[in-house]
Amino acid sequence: MSRIFTCLRPDDDAPPGAIGCDGLVPGAALDLSHWRGNRTPLAFKADTSTEIALAFIDSEQAAELADAPVVNNHFDTDGLLSVWTLLHPDAARARRELIVSAAVAGDFAEWPEDPRGVWVDAAVRRLAADADDDAAAYASLLAQLPELLDTIDDRRDLWGPAQDAIDAARVAIDDGRLQVSLLGSIGIVRHAPEVAEIPATLLSYLLLPRCWRYLLVFEEEDGRANYRYELPAWCWADTVVRPVMEWPESDALLGILGESWTTEDLPGLTAIVRTKEPIDTQPKDVLRKVVTVDREAYAALP
Fold it and tell me: What is the DSSP code (8-state) at residue 44?
């Protein structure tokens, strides 16, 4: 096998016969992607691109495409691990649980089956931050990946800040400065003033799979609060195990919530609306408005 990887720019077309791995690359002969709009064969479908790549390398088609070029058009943990799986299938098989866990932590901000996946994702992000661009990040991380995976327990220098944030959030939960609750299947997370936002992996650990929506509340000293309303972090992807959820109409939400809310400058891929500034409204009152236009949220209420 002699597959060669190239990191393309977002608007580049794939070379003839290429396997498009993770990202949607125009002109790819084969998609191995979980992005919406993909043409990934049904036999390989899975929730992360790393799992898709693992399914592909165990297929007859993998041998037929042993020399096919591999391309992606962006860098992230799932992209890195799915590309690495195609380039080094035996090494990937031997580390299957860990790399899938890292892909889940990276793309879906979930607490994975192997908790070390959170560390791998944090380490990949830290190392990639030193690269000049996505191509340089791939060149650096593909070379380092086997050793990084095998020694991840000892790489607190890379994942320590992420773990410290999780530990700090747990302390805040214990002393009541951070409150996590469920109203039906809607997760409500209240942050006391000056408390950092709960790490998304810890949020998923505490609320999934029971939760369909998150309402994040960031309280101010004067009793007002900022809000953000969002879907679980997998909902941007084409998933087969995690449920496909209907996206609420953001314009309708803005209409019912008022001028203090916006859809601009949203973090991540699954945030729906947020406040522009702190408002004097209680979380349950926000939800009463939201459920009038978000049908799945309404169905989730007790």
Answer: G
